[in-house]
Amino acid sequence: MGELSELGDGQLVLRSREGESAAFGELVRRYKRPAYAIALSVTGRHEDAEDAAQESFVTALDRLEECRDPARFSGWFLTIVRNRSRNLLRRERLRRGEPIPFTLASREPGPERRREQAALRERLLQAAGELSRVQREVLLLHDLEGWKHREIAERLGMPSGTVRSHLHYARKRLRELLSPVTTPEMEERTG
Amino acid sequence: MTRARRETGPDLSILDPGLADAGYWRRFETRVLTTALPALARRRRAARTTLPEVVNAWSRLLVPAAAAAAITGIFFLATPAEEGVAAVGDLDEVVLPGEEGYGTMPSFLASEDTLDRDVVEFAVGDF
Fold first, then answer.
1. Model pTM greater than 0.95?
2. Separation CA A12–CA A24 (nearest Å)
């Protein structure tokens, strides 16, 4: 397993094409969080983001031969995540009005703190929903997943300066939107 | 999660489903890999296809084709060859000594039909 974690995406893709479960597992480990972040930036809902991210991995496995440059798997894969998330969102909109399955909350019944966290999460997602799609992606990949500007630039196919610009405006806008509930500690941190 | 985020950005860690549920990401991986098992198995089967299997698959087409070619060859070999040889003799007869009902090449070139004669001279000029 340690050996696999040292391999580049290209090698892992080639081995996954041969059906090597461990290689595909390493890709899942490597990209589960970015996939979730991208899906969340599109859908704005945990349950939908979870479904879209998981489905995207299986779709990517089915279409691995279409990944013409295995070394650039991340950009190709995140495009799949983005498209699946949009499709899922479209489906959800079509059946709007129907009750939505209560998955995460029912799995984790919690005390008052969980409710507070859920409220804060909802507020953050609503605020993030005010940002442009690319701003949300950059913000979540950087501030939630810890990707560097250079990594985001490579994987989303944009100049590093553009990434910095999107991040700057996304944070600024988010701070404005969250200001009524921003704690003094957060204000100090965010400047 | 990163130092830079803590210094400059709003805290988004609440959006990480693994924050309140330590086993979340492990279960996520397990679900994906479980769903992917049939596709991975298919890929392994396809990758294990050996050279003899490929040859065997080809032979299903090649053997009937070769058999048909052999039968056709035997049929032609068994057919009498006299008819084919006679055809070559017929051509000589038309061009040189002449044959009943047809003019020979020299007599045709001496005829009044200049247009056709020119065409024939042009056509046979390289011979």
1. no
2. 7
